[in-house]
Amino acid sequence: MKNYAVLSNNEKFTIFEFNNQVICFVTSSKLERYTKVLEWDHGYLVVMAKYKDMDEVEEYIDLIPILQNLYYDTDAFLNLIKEVKIEYAA
């Protein structure tokens, strides 16, 4: 089992994958891609993102309310994740 999660996006969805679980949630249709993870803090992400017709900007993603709405045991799920990487298919 990997100890890292993967962040990506596809069209208007952000995709967070860990341990064969895929969590998708709606994001801006202007988002082109996430470019860098600046911080991972037990469900809270600070990332750099590239939007159409804009320079890169700092973005904040709080996964805890998303996981709670999906009835996850947030601590059990998040405690296993040591880092988050950005990956896109080639």
User: How far apart are the first and last residues' alpha carbons, in Å?
Assistant: 23 Å
Radius of gyration: 13 Å
Strand portion: over 45%
- What is the overall silhouette? globular
Give a count of the beta strands, DSSP E runs of length 2 or more.
7
Biggest β-sheet: strands ordered side by side in the sheet: 3-2-1-7
Order of helices and strands: EEEEEEHHE
Share of helical residues: 10-25%
Mean pLDDT, all residues: 94
- What is the tally of helical segments? 2
The structure class reads mainly beta
- Report on the biggest sheet: 4 strands, mixed
Poorly predicted segments: none
Topology summary:
Blueprint: E1 4-10, E2 13-18, E3 21-26, E4 31-41, E5 44-51, E6 57-62, H1 63-69, H2 74-78, E7 83-86
Parallel strand pairs: 1-7
Antiparallel strand pairs: 1-2, 2-3, 4-5, 5-6
Description:
The protein has 90 residues and is mainly β. It contains two helices and seven strands; from the N terminus they run ββββββααβ. It has helices at residues 63-69, 74-78, and strands at 4-10, 13-18, 21-26, 31-41, 44-51, 57-62, 83-86. It has a four-stranded mixed β-sheet, with no helix packed on it. A three-stranded antiparallel β-sheet has the order 4-5-6. The protein is globular, with a radius of gyration of 13 Å. The two termini are 23 Å apart.
